[in-house]
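Researcher: Structure for this, please.
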Amino acid sequence: MTEPSVLFELSEGVARLTLNRPARLNALTVDMLADLHEKVRHFTDQKSDARVLVVTGAGRGFCAGQDLNARVVPAGGAPTDLGESIELYYGPLVRALRAVPMPVIAAVNGVAAGAGANIALACDLVVAARSASFVQSFVKVGLIPDSGGTWTLPRLVGPARAMGLALLGDKLPADQAAQWGLIWRCVDDADLGPCVNALARQLVAGPPRGLARTKQALYESWGRTLDQQLQIERDYQRELGFSSDYAEGVAAFLAKRLPRFSGG
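Model: Predicted structure, token format:
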């Protein structure tokens, strides 16, 4: 039997989705995108037993972007409607990743190119192996960055660096990506798995509602004024201040012990 293009596993509160076309550097097909989207959507309803989601790639790459072999224009045929692909597949996937209430970690184990790079950057925390790289390769085939790239890049690294990455399509090594603030952390290749596992365990032990509201407040702040954001902070703190996790956090602090958050 053919292995699924996206693998799923759940252990001790950590869900893991692994892009699984290693022979093609996990390049994306329509079926693979649909499967990944459906699996990510499972975590948006807050009914999962998971508290953290990790997205990674099998083999020596994270994701090489769209599989161009699966997008051949027949001789004399009509060109492929790339806008339809964004509307039906890439856009919904990026929206779903951002809608997941729990922390989402991208473990980038090799090249992340094109849509693969921007899918990684749609996650909350990106940890990359030192041998990994990020490439906005769209310009090489006459396109613009998609999968949220034109929105995410300037917000992470500023307009000048975003413009250079998008217009030149040069490979950005993981260590430089970390220096620029594009990703959370770059680690030695051998340390990627242990680092991501430790980070996931730390987040699993955190307060689920507090983490979800923190994500929401930070992402939505880009569309608000300071005064509006202060009101949101007031509302979220009021809500969380009545939670059992807040009571547990204060009790643990006073007793000098680790808190045991339940999500209540």
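Researcher: Any notable elements?
Model: The mean pLDDT is 94. The longest strand covers residues 6-11.
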